[in-house]
Every structure is written in C-alpha cells, then in structure tokens.
Specification:
Elements: H1 22-26, H2 53-67, H3 75-97, H4 101-118, H5 127-139, H6 148-162, H7 164-193
Helix pairs in contact: 3-4, 3-5, 4-5, 4-7, 5-7
C-alpha cells in the first residue's frame, strides 16, 4: 500500500505573496469599523441666543396673537363687533373712570386692530369704514350729556373734535392692516396662477 506523505505545517507566508500589513489583518485602519447602518451620534444643537430685547418682545407678541381666537367676520359682523365693543367700553369708562376721553381713545386702537384682523378677506374694505362709526357710537355714554338732547349732541360733537387724533389713528391702523392683508392675498393668488418651474 502507498503511504501518503504528511505535509509539514505551513506557518510562514506563501511563495509569491507579500505579507499583509497589520492594519489590513485587523480589518481596517485605526481600529474596529462601526457597524453597518449605525450613524455616529449627533452633535447637540448649540444653545439658542436670546437676541435683543426688542426681538424677544416681538416673538412674545407673535406667540400671544397666535393663541387668540381667529374668527372670520363679514362686513356687517365686523361693524357690529366694533360698535358693540366700543359702546361697552364707553359704558365701562363712564362707570369706572368718570368718562375719561383719553382712556376711551387708547381702548379704541386695539378694537380697530382686532376688527381689521378678524374681518374676512372679501370684506376688507369695510374695516376702515365701520371703525369711525363705532368710535362715534361708543362716545354716546362718554360725552357730556348736560342740557337735554341738544346738550348731548353738542357734547358728542365736542368729544369728536377733541379726540380726532385717536379717531384718525384707529382708522389708520385698520386701513393699514386691511391694505397689508389685501396685498398678501393678491400675491398668493399670483403665486398660485404662476406655472411651476420645470
């Protein structure tokens, strides 16, 4: 019977092949490779800078406005809201502060702002129209009412003349907000009609 030669153990490098570098023998350069599909840990986001005080106040105001209700009033509804609110504020002014015309004028500005913001897009023109009417209606309990009907009428005319600055200011606020909303609405319509870029 033939006897098979036993091969001696081969521990050295084979002929014609160069030995592998130590990095390749370990399977990568500089240590173990990360497992497939695993991402390196994300760096934490840098802390947000608070910014200047004016910017902080604007951000706070924006958050507060977003929390407010956002009804959509018709032109008639906006007029009723503004007139009712000013008449109620005029009565409160008469009862609590003794008919202070300056306080009444200050309270008129936020009512104008809310009226212009809450009126729907189709009735934006009505906002600066109903505001002066509401200002006059709210002056009825605040104006001087001595001397009967004629005295009340004269008190109303005098209050309108002396508080014309508040009247014009509130009308300007409502007009500016309505105009800004109208311009934004027109831009949105133009952007929708524009064909998408290929």
């Amino acid at each position: 019977m033939e006897q098979h030669r036993a091969r001696p153990p081969h521990n050295g490098p084979r002929r014609g092949t160069a030995p592998l570098p130590p990095q390749a023998a370990r399977g990568g350069s500089g240590g173990a490779r990360p497992a497939a599909g695993r991402r390196p840990p994300a760096r934490p986001a840098p802390p947000r800078q608070p910014g200047p005080p004016l910017l902080q106040a604007v951000r706070r105001l924006r958050r507060t406005v977003r929390r407010l209700p956002n009804p959509r009033l018709t032109g008639l509804g906006g007029g009723l809201f503004c007139g009712t609110a000013m008449f109620a504020l005029g009565c409160l002014d008469q009862l609590l502060f003794g008919a202070s015309l300056t306080l009444y004028g200050v309270l008129f500005l936020p009512v104008c702002l809310l009226t212009a913001v809450w009126v729907r897009n189709d009735d934006l023109v009505t906002a600066p129209v109903v505001v002066p009417i509401a200002f006059t209606a709210g002056l009825l309990p605040v104006a001087d009412s001595s001397g009967g009907l004629l005295g009340r009428l004269m008190g109303l005319v005098t209050a309108l003349a002396t508080q014309a600055g508040w009247l014009y200011g509130g009308t300007l606020v409502a007009g500016l907000i309505a105009t800004a909303r109208k311009v934004a609405l027109m831009r949105q319509r133009v952007a929708r009609r524009r064909p998408p870029a290929s």
